[in-house]
Amino acid sequence: MRTPTYKLAIVPVLMMTLIACSAEQDGNAIAQEPGNSTAGVVTPTEPVQTAEPAKSAEPTREAAGPSVTAGEIGHYEDIVISDWMDEDTVVVSKENDKLGKMSLEELADSYPKSLYFYHLDTKEFELIKEQENVFLGDAVLSSDNRFLLYSEFSLGDPVYYVMDLGSKKTFSITGDDIAGAMSARWADDDTVIGPAYSGGAFTASTSGKIGAVEGLSGEGLVVVRQIKDKIYYTSNSGESLQTFDLNTKEKAALKIDHVGSVIPSPDGDRLLVLQYKDSAQALLLTDTDGGNQKIIVEGTELGGVSWSPDQRMIAYSTSADGNGTASAALYVYDLESGKSIKVADATGNLTSSWSPSGKQLAYTEWSGDQSSSSVVQLKD
């Protein structure tokens, strides 16, 4: 997801703040949307128990071993890759100049952003959703690829929508019971969950049924993720990770403090927890009950966290200041070898997402008010 005047600079800053707040809960941000369009096809320019000791935030290639290597990297300017439909198709957000510039005075120098499928093999865009005077982004597919969760934003708070990709029908996650969604994540193929502006958590089914989660109403929640029959959450009153059992309605504390985001494994048996510790951060791997804790990496700024589909690999980014110069890099941690390898250098904050086979890793760099995406080919 220039060099604007001071007044118009408010717009990209607001957009980046919004995206950061949304991505942070997925571990895809630091303590947290790509080319030129013409008519038709467009081609872009090219702790329950003590955790084990932390790994280095910048592992050496020798320490990483030969388990995974980075191959060719494809670069895509001014588009934001947020998910994968298949090995050759990604979901992207990008400016749509065919719609004309935004009508609001504060956004008058910006074009709306629309959602597309981008075909990596043919370099063609396929329109999913366009709308005048709004930025569309944060698009994530349900695991069966039938529905798309996305956000709509201009000024103020974002509104989240669910689209049936077959019929193209959409509904907004709003209503008197929840006063809107602060953020939204897929809980399963048919359900979206997140913190509600009214307090507590909400669920929204793909059929359009929206309601508050009984037992959590009134609490100011920040992180909300559902894993199987439990909701994992943090509240405004504390950053400790709590659970709420949807069957028994019982609450429990996992004794994992300073939680910034929770990223469940694809099978729902383990968690990655991004923790804040003074001026540093740590990426913690743990069972869903808080047991078997292991620190994967520590660093001053961590983000871009995502699981590979087979759960063998964990992507993460780390930033550091070297000789007064800020630098960032994307790493892949191999759970089998217990070692990391750097797969790409970067210039800003990162988000990441894996292709269905786990052989490609997309990442988007955020630097100031600009963004671009890249795809790394990974080899065993």
From TrEMBL:
<dbReference type="InterPro" id="IPR011042">
    <property type="entry name" value="6-blade_b-propeller_TolB-like"/>
</dbReference>
<feature type="signal peptide">
    <location>
        <begin position="1"/>
        <end position="22"/>
    </location>
</feature>
<feature type="region of interest" description="Disordered">
    <location>
        <begin position="30"/>
        <end position="68"/>
    </location>
</feature>
<protein>
    <recommendedName>
        <fullName>TolB protein</fullName>
    </recommendedName>
</protein>
<keyword id="KW-0732">Signal</keyword>
